[in-house]
Amino acid sequence: MGRDTIADIITSIRNADMDRKVTVRIASTKITENIVKILLREGFIENVRKHQESNKYFLVLTLRHRRNRKGAYRTILNLKRISRPGLRIYSNYQRIPRILGGMGIVILSTSRGIMTDREARLERIGGEILCYIWGVLPGMKEQKWIHEGLITESLPNGMFRVRLDNENMILGYVSGKIRRSFIRILPGDRVKIEDSNN
Predict the structure, then answer these.
(1) Helix locations, 3-101, DSSP H
(2) What radius of gyration do the chain's Cα atoms show?
(3) Residue 139 confidence (pLDDT)
(4) How many CA atoms lie within 13 A of 86 on its CB side?
(5) Could you tell me which residues are beta bridge partners of residue 149?
(6) In whole angstroms, what is the distance from residue 140 CA to residue 125 CA?
(7) What is the pTM (predicted TM-score) of this model?
């Protein structure tokens, strides 16, 4: 099986952010360039430049940060790979999840190229869900929302699709005591979903 390029860049960016690095270098490919353009446009990174070294091209990303009297506050990026080479996850435009009520973004691969969930809904087009991205600043209070809804579909790896009472569709996953106790959750069950920016 070939390398998962998207998982590689997500890991590189996340590790650099956790290590408080100002910049991170990733391989330049068509798909990474498209994803990075979205990160830049949505304000998750400060800047990007293309760098050539030994006939290979790289993208050098400058991560965002803020300063106050106590020094630099790093923007913590949260990136989660969803669809993988061995397990493709697709969605039509009506069922694309909303991340933190719209505070984060979903990146999709569609027949019209790489785009965000907002763009896909406007274009009325679905596609493969590549990843979720959201960001918070250290020191920011953790915000949690509790939603209630109906499970409409069970997915692999303890994930499921839920129709909330406000008719929004989101993806959820089993954790904590429910996962440890191997409690089965089936389509048709009503559940409470905890949504946080942590």
Answers:
(1) 5-18, 30-41
(2) 18
(3) 47
(4) 6
(5) 164, 191
(6) 35
(7) 0.66
DSSP code at position 75:
P
The pLDDT tens digits for 51-68 are: 898 889 999 999 876 554
CB 56 within 8 A of CB 98: no
Determine the Cα angle at 188 with ends 185 and 192, to 5°. 60
User: Is-contact 195 141, C-beta < 8 A?
Assistant: no
- Round to whole Å and give the CA distance between 127 and 132: 14
Using left for φ > 0, alpha for ψ between -120 and 50, and beta otherwise, residue 15 falls in: alpha
Six-digit token pair at 4? 């998962």
Tokens of 156: 């692999």
Tokens found for residue 190: 């009503």
Distance CA 37, CA 47 (A): 10
Helix intervals (H) in 64-186: 117-123, 176-180
DSSP character at residue 198: -
Comparing 16-30, 91-105, 110-124, the range with the smallest average pLDDT is: 91-105
